[in-house]
Amino acid sequence: MPDKKNVPPGAPMFGDISNTEEIFRTVANSLPALIWMSGPDKLHHFFNKSWLDFTGRTLEEETGNGWQKGIHPEDLNAYLHTYLSAFDKKAPFDIEYRLRRYDGVYCWMLDKGSPHFSTENIFLGYTGGCMDIHAQKEFSIELEKQVYNRTKELQQINEELIKSEERYHRMVEEVEEYAILSLTKEGIIENWNKGAEKIKGYKAEEIIGQYFNVFYTPEDRRSGLPEKLLNDAREHGTVKHEGWRRRKDNSRFWGYVVITALFDMNKNIIGFSKVTRDLTDKKLAEDQLAETNKELKNKTNQLLEAQHLTHMGSWEWDIREDKITWSDELYKIFGLIPYEIEPNYLSLSSFIHPDDQPLLHEVVEQAIKQHKPYHFIHRIIRPDGTERILSGRGKVFTDDTGNVIRLAGTAQDITEQKNYELELKESEERFLKIFHNNPVPMTFAEIKTNKIKYANNLFCSVFGYTQEEVVGRTTEELQLLSPEENARVIGIILETLHETRSVEELQQLSVEETEELLVRLNQSDAIRNIEILYTRKNGEQFPAIVSYEVIRIGNEKYTITSYQDITERKKVELLLKHQNEELAKMNNELKSFAYISSHDLQEPLRKIQTFAGRILEKEYANLSESGREQFTRMHDAAKRMQRLITDLLDYSRMSSEKRIFEFTDLSTIITEIKEELHDDLIAKNAVIETGKMCSINIIPFQFKQLMNNLISNSLKFSDPERPLRITIKSTFAKGHAFSNPRLFPHVNYCKITVADNGIGFDPQYNERIFEVFQRLHGSDKYKGTGIGLAIVKKIVDNHVGVITASGKLNEGATFHIYIPEKSL
Questions:
Q1: Of the segments 96-110, 287-301, 304-318, 526-540, which one has the largest average pLDDT value?
Q2: Cβ(519)–Cβ(550) under 8 Å?
Q3: Alpha carbons 753 and 737: distance in angstroms, whole number
Q4: Kind and range of the H or E element at 179?
Q5: Is residue 639 over pLDDT 80?
Q6: In angstroms, rounded to a whole number, what is the distance separating the alpha carbons of residues 493 and 498?
Q7: Would you say 277 and 258 are in contact if contact means Cβ atoms under 8 Å apart?
Q8: What is the 3-state composition of the chain as percent helix, strand, coil, each rounded to the nearest 5?
Q9: pLDDT at residue 475 tops 50
Q10: 565-589 core/surface letters (b: 16 or more CB in 10 A; e: else)
């Protein structure tokens, strides 16, 4: 464990040095003013270069209370009284005192101090600046002394004043550093010296006789400042004032003015003396110092905000004063209230996790011995028991002799970062587990080198390599493609990307350029459609289709590639091709059959109907009753056979005819059907009720046949005991809204419902009703071929739709048709 004398209390818990102190020192050391700084303990801990150059003392000699040795003994008590009184009130102060220069001469200083606070309004001490006013002070003292003596002399011997007045004026006129003039008791200028001409720009003949407010700015004249100063001088004898004054050319200068009232022997005012000194340079320096302090304060606030945003606190230990200071953010990191504890090495070590304390002592001891910066990660335990992970950085500062005088640094709360790194590691482990167990051969390669970093077990099995043979090598090195196949694939890729650069040029691309090229290739989908002939380790070749994705893990970019062996698929495709050829042959035969059905088979049926009809018409009287019945049955049978052939041809055409979809209003189709079935509707005393119908993308002539078949079906199976009522309505909704598992959930469907109050059917036939030749009633009572609803089902299938039926005996039947709004 390091020696307590050489170890900064709390030093190891913190990292990178805060810039605030360095910024302040840099700025302060560049200023001509004498700058000092004290802490909340009232002790001075900083003096800038100008102070040290002026006093000729070192920073070590001045810090603490050492600076008091430079204050003139007659001024020290007054200064301490002012400083300590202001300190207790945390209020600004200014005081004039004499400070010993490096050559032993005491010089007058104007010292202005201001309290400064943290962003949380915590008092941090004082910052002060001294301005050398020795020349001004001596002049003021000397001037006051001269004025006093002169006034006394005037009061004592008025005659002597009159005699010496001319001599006095000659003396005053020769002074050039000060503007000295006399005013009447009304403020009219009576005389003018060379200094006044130099400072104010007027010659004597131009200004004598004018009112003295000519030197004041328009703002001061409007506020009555000149008159107020004369009144104050009348009342108090002397008045001093600093402010902007106006020259003849209207330029401004900062003037220090002393106006003294002049009395006769009877103490009656006879006029005023006015002395002005140009302190513009001093004013500008003070303004610059104020602006610098403001900028420094802003920088300090920005730094504090940056510490808050980055969860980073700063610390410093002054070994000479044995004093440790923490930033407010550091207290927050440790879960402490600022200044709740006295930070020292022992007290702060207690917050370090027990397992990390040996590391703490070792790091600090080595830093102090070697005078080198340090960085380490450690844990702390807050007062509430929670653990946090900190990144601590520190730096050791030494004097010219190599002795350690100060340690400073920062501590950043990286708990969330460490938790994220842990989650990332676990995520990578889960990814690799999924990767290795994936049922598709896969590789994981760096874009930068194209070398394979991981290959799953199936890849090794398919290609015949071990993990050791694959990892760290490229696909080219493994010779997964023959030279001819590699050249073919590269040619296709370059053509797809319209690349004019050579393969050698592309290999020299940066990681970012390569990634951009891979993304373009992936977006084209060209690589996904290329069948590539791969070579196994044993020389066997097999066809595969490759797909890949570009991913990022941390700061590195990779491609994850999958290889789909399509050997079996190629066999299936070959078989499918053969079956398609057979199917095409069968379709041709079916077309021939349809031709025969529509021509050769129907022709004999038409002749049978014709001849049977003629015999019944012309030979009816000559036929026996039995003959008449036989010819009538033959005629009807031929008619039914022709209708069956026609329905079968319609059914077959539903699959073979060209499908042209059009956006159609269903109400138009229903209106046309009503007109076509007008007579049948009247005969059945039927009414068709429709609501607002959908407009959807359909094959118009097929859908007209669908609706015709359904309405005709209702007419055919109507109940003669009651008027037939057919209801047709439609509605739009997503598939998931209809509770039908055969619908696509997120596709918009038009649901068409056709319901009647006919004879209905047994619910057990809800599905079988759409089968070809399915008849639920005898042909003797209800005519038909049993194909009408099968044609309806085929038309719905052609629209990638769904149809369902439900019925109840003697109550009616309902058909629900679901057609996609847009053709799929």
A1: 96-110
A2: yes
A3: 15
A4: strand 179-183
A5: no
A6: 8
A7: no
A8: 50, 25, 25
A9: yes
A10: bbeeeeeeeeeeeeeeeeeeeeeee
Tokens encoding 519: 């993304």
Q: Per the structure block, which two tokens stand in for 223?
A: 């506020």
Backbone angles phi, psi at 799, to 5 degrees: -95, 10
3-class secondary structure, 589: helix
The C-alpha atoms of residue 413 and residue 391 are separated, in whole angstroms, by: 7
Nearest by Cα to 39 from 102, 125, 164: 125
Task: Check pLDDT > 80 for residue 482.
Answer: yes
Cα 256 from Cα 238, distance rounded (Å): 13
Tell me the mean pLDDT in the region 561-569.
Answer: 84
Residue by residue, DSSP assigns 712-758 as HHHHHT--TTS--EEEEEEEEEEGGGGT-TTS-TTSEEEEEEEEE-S
What tens digit of pLDDT does each residue of 243-257 get? 999 999 999 999 999
- Which residues, other chains included, contact 397 with Cβ-Cβ below 8 Å and sequence gap of 6+? 404, 405, 406, 407, 408
Q: At what angle do helices 788-798 and 625-656 cross, to 10 degrees?
A: 10
The whole-angstrom separation of Cα 366 and Cα 377 is 16
Which neighbouring-strand residues pair with 183? 189, 272
Q: Which residue has the tokens 């196994």?
A: 536
Give 137-183 pLDDT, tens digit per residue. Answer: 887 777 778 777 776 776 675 555 455 555 555 555 556 678 888 89
Q: Do the beta carbons of residue 592 and residue 470 sit within 8 Å?
A: no
Report which of 647, 651, 613, 589 is spatially closest to residue 795, judged by C-alpha positions. 651
Most confident option among 12-16, 447-451, 710-714, 775-779:
710-714
10 Å CB burial of residue 88 (0-12, 13-18, 19+) is: exposed
CA pair distance 723, 730, nearest whole angstrom: 23
The two tokens of residue 766 are 């809800």
Q: Using CA atoms, how far apart are residues 110 and 741, in angstroms rounded to an integer?
A: 92
Tokens 């220090």 belong to: 256
What average pLDDT score do residues 128-142 get?
Answer: 83
Secondary structure of 187-251 as H, E, C letters: CEECCCCHHHHHHHCCCHHHHCCCEHHHHECHHHHHHCHHHHHHHHHHHHCEEEEEEEEECCCCC
* Confidence band for 297, pLDDT divided at 50, 70 and 90: low
Q: In the chain, how many H helices and how many E strands?
A: 28, 26
Dist. CA 161–CA 153, nearest whole Å: 7
Neighbouring C-beta atoms of residue 691, cutoff 10 Å: 11
Question: Strand, coil or helix: what is 255?
Answer: strand
270 has a pLDDT exceeding 80 = yes
